[in-house]
Design goal:
TIM Barrel; flavoprotein; 8-stranded parallel beta sheet; FMN-dep_DH
């Protein structure tokens, strides 16, 4: 249970945090209300945002026993490369909203943890500086209204040494995020979309009854993205191609047929269509539909090593984790982000061993059972 004490921040947060939720509380203590809402909020009534967690909590695992848990490994393969665990850092825009070191600190933490870092098109640090950190970097791509500029971004990512292109396919425009509208949210002057501009944009102009960030993306992103664009992208890059934001099995099959190396089963963390199916509930049908023709990853709501194991047991080859990294970064910079990934690795190793799995491959053989979801617990 919660002690009721004030959450610790900075170095103290990294030393005392025992779970990812501790960093959420620590970040809440240092972020402004409107930045906290920008990171934590969802679209509409936040039905899908809440449902992601509830759905994960309804997935119960059936552990095996007498399997020799003396040596448990979290090592896995993601997009053909070895990773220390089946986790990648999800793309999140504008890290410098929460810490001056922004994406550089988060990328260094991912490198130290041995997992890929996914840099957003809307990162607040240029892609070249992020890859210079030296870890495995994937580049998340939003299709822009200017197709030539879109392809220049892909070439920049290739030239910078990115190891994959992750095309987000569920954002014809930004979902209506009421917290941001009520806050009239706009970027502060020191935070920019560094891959797109070096100066202020419409994302910085606060106005009544709108989110300036939503206005900016509406003017920048193409709402005409179709499968023909996917085919064009597949032809133009030799990097592994991932489609992020797939929930329908039919779309997953078509993604594989279009040359995608992986799909991310995702509802954008509850930030796009409010009322969309929780990602974990969509996962089994997608896995069955693609029949191994591409990798299947999952994001939206992952908050523990047990959640990672749930996804693996339901057929995912790995997960993407977003908000917890931002909480760690806000609370304690690079050390906080690193501690988030360290905790996740420790929890996954613990969950694997206690479920009778000596490694990630064994997790796919676990049975699951549907159970009731109780109220959220604070520990």
């Amino acid at each position: 249970m919660s002690s009721g004490a004030e959450p610790e921040t900075g170095a103290a947060a990294t030393e005392t945090a025992l779970c990812l939720a501790d960093f959420e509380r620590a970040a809440a203590a240092v972020l402004s209300a409107e930045v906290r809402d920008f990171v934590a909020g969802g679209s509409g009534a936040e039905t899908t945002l809440d449902a992601n967690r509830a759905a994960l909590d309804r997935v119960f695992l059936v552990p095996r026993v007498l399997t020799d848990a003396s040596r448990v490994s979290t090592e896995s393969r993601l997009l053909g490369r070895t990773a220390a665990m089946p986790v990648a850092v999800a793309p999140v825009a504008y890290h410098r909203l929460v810490h001056p070191d922004g994406e550089l600190a988060a990328a260094r933490a991912a490198k130290a943890a041995g997992v890929p870092f996914t840099a957003s098109t809307l990162s607040s640090v240029p892609i070249e500086e992020i890859t210079a950190v030296g870890g495995a970097v994937w580049f998340q791509l939003y299709w822009l209204r200017d197709t030539a500029q879109t392809m220049r971004l892909v070439r920049r990512a290739e030239d910078a040494g990115c190891e994959a292109v992750v095309l987000t396919v569920d954002v014809p425009w930004m979902g209506r995020r009421l917290r941001d509208v009520r806050n009239r949210f706009a970027l502060p002057g020191h935070v920019t979309a560094a891959n797109l501009t070096s100066g202020p944009s419409s994302a910085h102009r606060r106005a009544a009854d709108v989110s300036a960030v939503a206005v900016h993306t509406g003017r920048t992103f193409s709402s005409a993205l179709t499968w023909s664009h996917v085919a064009d992208l597949r032809e133009r890059t030799g990097l592994p191609l991932v489609l992020k934001g797939v929930l329908a099995p039919e779309d997953a099959v078509r993604a594989a047929e279009s040359g995608a190396d992986a799909v991310v089963v995702s509802n954008h963390g509850g930030r796009q269509l409010d009322g969309a199916v929780p990602s974990i509930e969509a996962l089994p049908d997608v896995v069955r539909a693609v029949r191994g023709s591409c990798e299947v990853l999952l994001d939206s709501g992952i908050r523990s090593g047990t959640d990672v194991l749930r996804a693996l047991a339901l057929g995912a080859s790995g997960v993407l984790v977003g908000r917890p990294l931002i909480w760690g970064l806000a609370a304690a910079g690079e050390a906080g982000a690193a501690r988030v990934l360290e905790l996740l690795a420790d929890e996954l190793r613990d969950a694997l061993g206690l479920s009778g799995c000596d490694g990630v491959a064994a997790a796919a053989r676990l049975r699951t059972a549907a159970g009731p979801a109780g109220p959220p617990r604070t520990v």
